[in-house]
Amino acid sequence: MPKFAANLSMMYPELPFLDRFEAAAGDGFKAVEFLFPYGFDKRELAARLRAHGLQQVLFNAPPGGTDAASIAHAWEKMGDRGTAAVSGREAEFRVGVLLALEYAEALDCPRIHLMAGLIGAGQEREEVRPTYVTNLRWAAMEAAKHGRDVLIEPINTRDVPRFFLNRQDHAHEIVAEVGAPNLKVQMDLYHCQIVEGDVATKIRQYLPTGAVGHFQIAGVPERHEPDIGELNYPYLFGVIDEVSAACGWDGWIGCEYRPRQGGQSGGTSAGLGWLPR
Predict the structure, then answer these.
(1) What is the CATH classification number for the domain harbouring 99?
(2) Hey, which bits of the chain come out as E strands?
(3) CA-CA distance, 277 to 275, in Å (whole number)?
(4) 10-65 tens-digit pLDDT
(5) What's phi and psi for 82, nearest 5 deg?
(6) Residues of the domain holding 169
(7) Among all residues, which ones are annotated catalytic?
(8) Rounded CA gap, 219 and 237, in Å?
(9) Secondary structure class of 215 (helix, strand, coil)
(10) What distance in Å separates the CA atoms of residue 91 and residue 94, rounded to the nearest whole number?
């Protein structure tokens, strides 16, 4: 059975952020992920994880464009959406990765997502690809010193126009080009469905390669609970189970969705009927 991690940046919006750890544990989650930890003290976050028996499985490196400590944990306030593929900002990227590794050590988090960033006006992807590859190669080397994985994620351009990385095949090409065993793909099935579809086939294609480090889910098209929308998640979870059993994958599925009842009576917990099913 898949292992689900609550995304605390999107789930439980009816609660202050630090109270969401307790809420997730109360709903049966054993792991959490979130976007950015930098506005909070590392010791406080680690204490919340320990107090509620939770494992931190993923967070993002700083997205650029603002002081890391001022970055909101919410999706809507994500700075420049990353700097990994942005020429001229290599020094900023490296500072952000080193800060992320400090937090990963404190939170015992095994993986960090490195957001690619946006293509500039008039630029082509191939122009900035060398910058992306060089930055990822450096980041993977630094993360390996700390026993961490670094992840890249294709994101749809409906939600994030001009985002550098959009397709699964392109992400896996980049991973192969970098050639670092601790660089993997963060396979968000919400983004995958919007951009290219054929989701089950892509799970079967890429999961056995060992290059998928993490899954994320949300209903399509509105990014609500996974039992709302056009994707048949029970079927897809079965595909993940089947392929995992054959290839030995034992990762997490992050629940990166906006609860339909968020902020209302019952809040996030009222929408979790899909989880026990």
Answers:
(1) 3.20.20.150
(2) 3-7, 31-33, 55-60, 111-113, 149-152, 183-188, 212-217, 252-255
(3) 5
(4) 999 999 999 999 999 999 999 999 999 999 999 999 999 999 999 999 999 999 97
(5) 110, 160
(6) 3-274
(7) 153, 256
(8) 13
(9) strand
(10) 5
Average pLDDT, the chain: 94
**Tokens coding 104:** 């990963």
Q: How many CB atoms lie within 10 A of CB 82?
A: 31
Q: What is the value of pTM for the model shown? A: 0.95
Give the whole-angstrom CA distance, residue 212 versus residue 208.
8
pLDDT at 266: 66
The DSSP H or E segment spanning 85 is: none
Q: Please give the single-letter amino acid code of residue 97.
A: V
What the block records as the tokens of 220 is 């399509």
Residues 6+ away with beta carbon under 8 Å from 16: none
Work out how many domains the chain is built from and give that number: 1
Among residues 167, 216, 209, the alpha carbon closest in space to that of 187 is found at 216
Per-residue pLDDT, 158: 96
Q: What is the pLDDT of residue 123?
A: 87
Q: For 93-133, how does the pLDDT look when each residue is reduced to its tens digit (9 = 90+)?
A: 999 999 999 999 999 999 999 999 999 888 888 999 999 99
Q: Measured between alpha carbons, how far is 214 from 186 in angstroms, rounded to an integer?
A: 5
Beta bridge partners of 31: 5, 55
Sign of the C-alpha dihedral computed for residues 37, 157, 252 and 248 taken in this order: negative
Distances, alpha carbon 184 to alpha carbons 4, 16, 76, 151, 215, in Å: 19, 32, 25, 5, 11
Phi then psi for residue 52, to 5 deg, are -115, 15
